Amino acid sequence: MSEQLDEGTRQAQVMQRSSRDPEQQRQAMETWLRGRLDADAKPVVPELHATKANGMSSDTVLFDAAWNDGGQERHESLVARIAPDAGDVPVFPDYELSKQFEVLRIVRELTSVPVPKVWWYEPDPAAMGASFFVMGCVEGLVPPDVMPYTFGDNWLFDATDLEKQRLQDTTVQVLADLHGIPHPETEFSFLSFDVPGETPLRRHIEHTRQWYEFAKKDCGPSPLVERSFAWLDDHWPKEEGPTVLSWGDARIGNMMYRDFEPVAVFDWEMAGLGPRELDLSWLIFGHQVFDTLAARMELPGMPDFLVPSEVATSYEFRTGHTPANLDFYLIYAALQWGIVFMRTGMRQVHFGEVEMPDDIESWFHHRPLFDKLLGGESIV
Q1: Which of 99, 100, 161, 211 is the most core-located residue (most Cβ within 10 A)?
Q2: pTM of the model
């Protein structure tokens, strides 16, 4: 087992996200700030480095910037989210960073959800090689993906039961607050997917179907993903429920915590409009994926954390909405995770980290859980 863990650690640590050079990015950012700020600001970016935090989608770089602000020297710790290079096997076919920027701005304006302050959006790829936006840097702890927090030896795994409960409850409250934003189809009309479909959920799944078509061009089809699309078509909910702002990537690995309460909510590439259960199922399933990985490594994992029935009860208590059809949404989540693994697997092939396998579904680290759900075994 230790050899398995050592190999898993090695692969995780060498997994490359971008071919961009940090020093060139630092110089480019400093030059861009000179054009963005006042003529006498004289901004300096002494250091820039790629984050080692979670996430395998956009390029995320951290940097400090100093400039003259009305005669006073100003220092800011900032984060830039940059659309990935098309040659680096991006997870998604499109990175509409302007939409992410607007979501963050509106959520910060309308709610108490702790999203970072957004500073600037730059659509012109000339400066950094792609469009990007800049937001404030927040200090806190993130449940690690590498190695997964369910593997042990990290701040969340070692927390007391009371601390874990606090983190779980306050995380669910974030979803409740996001879903409570009035008139989401008006406030976030720009998030409506421009694909065929009579309802937000149908458009959401059609958008994912097109994402899958994009993914399979490089690595070939996944029978499991295609079987799942067919299952969803055959088990469509009779009632989809109210439409809300859906964060999309609603998992604890995309949140930063302090004293086991959220202080930052980030990674909005998958934001859209749809039923509440989209985010609830993603929160549940994201943990189940990592717990499945722990079980495959014969580790104890965290089976008593983010238990589906407890998450659903906590959400109902905070919103008055009884989650429905969670098995449907969990299979949808499993399908989406499959597409993510198709893209991240191809990225590793691209950077020479792994060989192309005979079966791309060997990249599906959640395969046992996926099979269980499609076999009719509920985890709710």
Answers
A1: 100
A2: 0.92
Show the domain range for 114: 17-136
Q: Cα separation of 24 and 144, whole Å? A: 28
Are 302 and 350 in the same domain? yes
Q: Mark whether 249 is an active-site residue.
A: yes
Q: Residue 153: give its domain's CATH number.
A: 3.90.1200.10
Domain co-membership, 187 together with 308: yes
Considering 177, 194, 233, 249, which one is annotated as catalytic? 249
Asked if 115 contacts 264 with a C-beta cutoff of 8 angstroms, the reply is: yes
3-state secondary structure of 301: coil
Same domain, 119 and 268: no
Q: What is the CATH number of the domain that holds 126?
A: 3.30.200.20
Per-residue pLDDT of the chain (380 residues), as tens digits, is 334 444 444 444 445 455 678 899 999 999 999 999 999 999 999 999 987 654 556 689 999 999 999 999 999 999 999 999 888 999 999 989 999 999 999 999 999 999 999 999 999 999 999 999 999 999 999 999 999 999 999 999 999 999 999 999 999 999 999 999 999 999 999 999 999 999 999 999 999 999 999 999 999 999 999 999 999 999 999 999 999 999 999 999 999 999 999 999 999 999 999 999 999 999 999 999 999 999 999 999 999 999 999 999 999 999 999 999 999 999 999 999 999 999 999 999 999 999 999 999 999 999 999 999 999 998 88
Q: What does each C-alpha distance from 47 to 44, 66, 134, 266, 342 come to in angstroms?
A: 9, 11, 15, 23, 34
